[in-house]
Amino acid sequence: MVVNSINFWVFFAVFLIPYFFLFRKMMHQNIWLLLASLFFYGWVDWKMVPLLFVVSAFYFFLGIKIEKSNQTSPKKASLFTILGIVAGVGVLFYFKYFNFFVGEFSGLFSAIGIHVNSSDMDIIMPIGVSFFTFKVMSYVIEIHRENIKPTRNPVVFAAYVAFFPTILSGPIDRPTTFLPQFNERRKLDFCNLSEGLKRILWGLFLKMCIADIISSWTDAVFSGYGHHNATTIIAAAVLYTLQLYTDFCGFSEMAIGVGRIMGFTVTENFCRPFFSQNIAEYWRRWHMSLTTWITDYVFMPLNVAFRDWGRNGIFLATLINMVIIGMWHGANWTFFWFGVYHGLMLILIILFEKQRKKMEKKYGLKKKESYIWFRRLLAFVLFAFGSMLFRSASVTDFIGMVKQVGQGFGPIYDEELPAIVVYVLPSVAVMLFREWVAEYKRDIHFFHSPNVYVRLASIALMISTIIYIGQLDGNSFIYFKF
Amino acid sequence: MTRQEIFEQLNDIFIDVLDLEEVELNAETSANDIEEWDSLSHIQLIVAIEKVFGIKFTSLEIMKWKNVGEMVCSIEEKLK
């Protein structure tokens, strides 16, 4: 059940009416939310509901144990926290990477006398596992760091883990900001409803008017790259980067909007990444709920542990951090090298930071628009190159695609291209214009304009664009498979 | 060493490590208040603090800090 489907909206309407009007007590509202979340998850993948139940129960009790041990025996508390991390990573590893490792290293296993057949153990990955395991691990770490107290209410905790707007594909909400939101009864509020619908509308626009129209063209180019020239390959890298952004940001906008209607503030996931001036800034603006998670729980602890190794320690932590971000997306060498690529880019930024700042000071470049746009363009090119690796089915395909650029420029692959030129390019222009306004002209608004006519006109324009050009039978979201 | 003296020393370390013209730290100051204080310079700050005060923090202590005040409490604790 995808969020941009009729089924979802029927489910959401059936859920909302009793949620706001029947259940007058906070506790009943939370129970209803939990049941709806389990139903939603079960609809997508009913076999995995017991896993969700077991994970929730385990971390609920572990949280209480850690808090008790924080007071009595800090060593025990650390051990329990490590157990929580190992269990979370273990669940992820088992469902996400086991097949991959068995397949990749079966030769090695055979050499030491262990014979494994990867096809005998075809493990099916539960949808959303990368998202809910990260939620529960942050829960126990934050209790250990004494930033939160464990909840004593199993319904609240299970509802946090299974929260249906975000369970399939994030954003990854932190317990510090999200759990307290269950402690108050949510009421139907016009502001929340209006803001939530606007976010959903924008998400639908990104998904249906950009991502889903581009996807058939990029799919064709990436799967048949051997037939294409440099012009088509470069266009595919650019368009795929736009597709990835609009697909995932579109989903995040809808998840945030759905949460908002229900009275929850879901964490933001993107902040106009195409305005980044280097790769480091990209990672501060792209999939923010994942990058901040990794920064807080992997990058900083690694940096602290390696702090006596000087710059080498920082480089090592950066590389490990980016490889983890890469591999988080799935068991494929493309994601490993995607992480290494971004890690190396970040290391280069750290290496030359002083020289860059010196040069900017000397020539007064920092505020020069031409310099800023040059940096943005360069950052986009580097990011799009990484996205090619991210999208390729294998490292061999990626290398083949890069080699194909050597074939030289020529006419672009034109199957379905008119749809992209006529529908997608104007939609991308609208998207970038809105983001440019948000970046530069903070006092100009469309959806939130103080002028009612501007507000209504921009909403009407968005709805009619979606109806007129939106891909109604669109694909599933890219991030569902992570 | 008094709390005031620790703050003064920290001020000097922050100016030196973050390459600032001046800074006025107080207990509530956090990374949100100083642009140059990011995750990387945070590590450099910790290394400098440990060196100047001749102390060693545990990872958990460092991860628990939310502002300069908590950092100073840890330093005081170590200097006792």
Explain what you see.
The complex is a heterodimer of chains A (482) and B (80). By secondary structure, chain A is mainly α. Chain A folds into two domains: 6-188, no CATH class; 192-469, no CATH class. In chain A, 72% of the residues lie in helices and 0% in strands. With 80 residues, chain B is mostly helical. Chain B has one domain (3-79): Orthogonal Bundle (Non-ribosomal Peptide Synthetase Peptidyl Carrier Protein, Chain A). Chain B contains four helices and no strands. The longest helix of chain B is centred in the N-terminal third of the chain and has 16 residues, at 3-18. The radius of gyration of chain B is 11 Å and the shape is globular. The chains are: A mainly alpha (482), B mainly alpha (80). The interface between A and B is medium-sized, with 18 and 11 residues.
Features:
heterodimer, A: 482 residues, mainly alpha, 2 domains, 19 helices, 72% helix, globular, B: 80 residues, Non-ribosomal Peptide Synthetase Peptidyl Carrier Protein, Chain A, 4 helices, 0% strand
Please give the share of residues in helix of chain B: 55-70%
> Major sheet of chain A: size, sense and barrel closure?
none
CATH architecture of chain B: Orthogonal Bundle
- Compute the gyration radius of chain A: what is it? 24 Å
